[in-house]
Amino acid sequence: MKKFMKFGCLGVIGLIALIVVVAVFSTGGEDTETSGTNQGENQSEETTNDQSSSEDEDAAEEASSEETYSVGDTAEVDGVQFTLKSVTTTDERNEFAETDPSQVVKVEYEIVNNKEDEISVGGDLQAYDGTGNQVESYPLDNTMGSLQPGKKIQGVEHFGIEEGPIEIYFQPLVSFEDPAIFTAEVQ
């Protein structure tokens, strides 16, 4: 009988606590004297306004992050400025290359280091051909090295592709920002 009394008292206390919690959450913790109709309308308007401004901001961010550039354009990613100078095909081949692509594309670019630290150059480009396949760097005279703060370099990278156009993503090696995307017809 004593066990039943202890459990019964605890059960009653738990039930009361549950009722209080449900009552608080059902009113949203707000003053219950406000008119339910106006309160709901105001919340609905605020929610709609908040959602539309949030959606507008998201759309603007997506548009800026998905902006594509062309030959001659300049983009800055994480304090490093990249200008795509030209995209041309070359007949030059490396007899020791492991692949034999139908076209080798020469990408010429300029990088300006606007950061306060030295940066690595080379390996910061990623490319996709006209079929949507990611393509590997082709082993010709590709630029590799480093660049001091405030300095610039003229670089070259070769890619083996099956068909154009080519899509080039620039992102410094140690950056966590979204890459700049360049598209170019292969000439």
From TrEMBL:
<feature type="domain" description="DUF4352">
    <location>
        <begin position="69"/>
        <end position="164"/>
    </location>
</feature>
<feature type="region of interest" description="Disordered">
    <location>
        <begin position="30"/>
        <end position="75"/>
    </location>
</feature>
<dbReference type="InterPro" id="IPR029051">
    <property type="entry name" value="DUF4352"/>
</dbReference>
<dbReference type="Pfam" id="PF11611">
    <property type="entry name" value="DUF4352"/>
</dbReference>
<keyword id="KW-0732">Signal</keyword>
<dbReference type="InterPro" id="IPR029050">
    <property type="entry name" value="Immunoprotect_excell_Ig-like"/>
</dbReference>
<feature type="compositionally biased region" description="Acidic residues">
    <location>
        <begin position="43"/>
        <end position="65"/>
    </location>
</feature>
<protein>
    <submittedName>
        <fullName>DUF4352 domain-containing protein</fullName>
    </submittedName>
</protein>
